[in-house]
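Lecture 7 notes: from sequence to structure.
We start with the chain below.
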Amino acid sequence: MSVAKKQYKRITTKSLVDMKSNGEKIAMLTAYDYTMAKIVDGAGIDVILVGDSASNVMAGHETTLPITLDQMIYHAASVVRGIERSLVVVDLPFGSYQSDPKEALRSAIRIMKESGGHAVKLEGGKEIKESIKRILNAGIPVMGHLGLTPQSIYKFGTYTVRAKEEEEAEKLKSDALLLEKLGCFAMVLEKVPAKLAKEVSESVSIPVIGIGAGNGVDGQVLVTHDMLGMTHEFNPRFLRRYLDLHEEMTNAFKSYMQDVKSLDFPSDEEQY
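Predicted structure tokens for the same chain:
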């Protein structure tokens, strides 16, 4: 049964908590540039994630690790200029927060000051507790991220589902409670069993956003380029493609090329 959607002029961290309390699911997508952000925001998406997935989608890297803090700030600032309603959450990139809580705070402050983003997202639980505390103490909202954490891909060695075994599942549940206790306003659960994700969502009062975590959580996030079908090599079970822009764009480019070469474009009406 769907829940009546409350009209929010601007989405804030409090809006998301209210949405969970009211049983309204949260819709979250990625954006890395002004034009895409303007479209996503205009469609009414609640949260825009400026993800370190820009490393893959925009720069062509194999992992999220190479993207720098400066590059994340550039992408985030571009997104912020395109939005009016959505909450903009920005990933802290690999190496900008793991080793030193002071460095984590400096990184978060740079994102907030230089991009105008509304919150930051960090991967991990107990291991980065001090970094989260320091950022939160400075008044910067933090979204957590548990389960498959792509910045740790070389430790995992695979992008397979996480927390299938009891020991890892218990740690994930413990980390989720810790993130809530520390003061995170929400968290992402990536590629974990649906039953476990539902249990985590029911155990905390803050919103849990899933990607490959079933429908028992408080919202969903996808990479926009994936759900639009712009990327076509990536085919995980959790991905639903709403368009096939790869084919449509390819056909459009071919039509343009044919029109140029045949002198059909520009026509008399398209000239000055």
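Points to note: The beta strands are 26-30, 47-50, 87-91, 119-121, 142-147, 186-190, 208-211, 219-222. The longest strand covers residues 142-147.
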